[in-house]
Amino acid sequence: MNTVTKVIIGIIVVFFIAKTCGRSGSSSSSSSVAKTWQKSPVDNLIKELNDEKNFSIILLDMDANESSDDYRHQYQVIIQRPDTVVEQKSAWKNVSATFFSQNLNNMGMEIASKKDGVVTKQAVPAGYNHYVGNDKYGRWENRGGSSFWAFYGQYAFMSSMFNMGSYRRSYWNDYRGGGYYGSSRGYYGPSGGSPVYGTKSYTSSNSGRTSKWGSKPSSFKDKVRSRVSRSASTSSTRSSTKTTRSSSRYRSSSTRSRSGGFGK
Questions:
Q1: Does the pLDDT at position 83 exceed 50?
Q2: Chain-centre distance of CA 31, in angstroms?
Q3: pLDDT at position 254, please?
Q4: pLDDT for position 236
Q5: Whole-angstrom Cα distance, residue 77 to residue 245?
Q6: Which of 36, 50, 138, 253 is the most exposed place for a label (fewest CB within 10 A)?
Q7: Higher-confidence residue: 44 or 37?
Q8: Which residues pair with 142 in a beta bridge?
């Protein structure tokens, strides 16, 4: 075997070792990212409801442990079928600090839905995407110079089911025409004013509703908000760092591929 042949064989061996190590590193990185990401209970509910064409998932209540990172949600699931509407309440579900933080302002809101087979994750007033404005279930009525949604008699139970006192048409029009409908932006009422929908109004003392979160003192809620906010911020920073490192590695790999003459 002459010197030139030995050199060629050596180059081929080095090339395949480098390629194998690159694949191993990429696989390890992907595995690490996969392990850090977890499905939320809402993702699991969406999967369980896969056979349903139309449904709403509402954040009914939430709770937290004052001395530990223990956070929980309870959901209300509304399933729309051709001949009926079915309501289900979930058991309490453990959620991550990040997911709890993301939904702190969303009690009483629909946070995920499926309409005509299309899934959307967006915080909107319960009933907005399926029932309000749908003449199958009710109509707009003028009251004292303003227009409000009224469910037909056979669907009157929906108003209490959604825990909504009233649906003002001007707010619904703002949601539909203000760039919220069909997007991922949450809608809590007209911009510039206090939230009309969401946790604050849902748990207010004059709402008449009872909930675990609503019964907690303000000092407890502030402590939990601060804790989950810090946890979510840390988690976001770690995720961003991992993504940057991964992107750098892939860019380097791509550069090596071009210089190595793949495809020639």
A1: yes
A2: 23
A3: 37
A4: 57
A5: 40
A6: 50
A7: 44
A8: 147
Task: Report which DSSP code applies to 93.
Answer: E
| % of the chain at pLDDT higher than 90 | 51
DSSP codes joined into one string, 100-155 = HHHTTT-TTEEEEEEETTEEE---EETTTTTTTT-TTTEEEEEETTEEEEEE-GGG
Question: Concatenated DSSP letters for 159-203?
Answer: HHHTT-S--BHHHHHHHHHTT-TTSS----SSTTS--SSSHHHHT
H/E element, 74: strand 71-81
pTM of the model: 0.74
DSSP character at residue 53: S
- Provide CB contacts within 8 A for 197, sequence distance 6+: 108, 109, 125, 187, 188, 189
Angle at 140 between CA 134 and CA 141, to 5 degrees: 160
Average the pLDDT over 78-82 and give the result: 92
Closest CA to 133 of 151, 121, 118: 151
Amino acid at 259: S
Least reliable range by pLDDT among 148-152, 161-165, 186-190: 161-165
Residue 104: half-sphere exposure toward Cβ, Cα within 13 Å = 16
Whole-angstrom Cα distance, residue 72 to residue 100?
Answer: 8
Instruction: Report whether 110 contacts 124 (CB < 8 A).
Output: yes
Q: Is 216 exposed, middle or buried (0-12, 13-18, 19+ CB in 10 A)?
A: middle
Spatial CA neighbour of 132 closest among 141, 143, 144, 120: 141
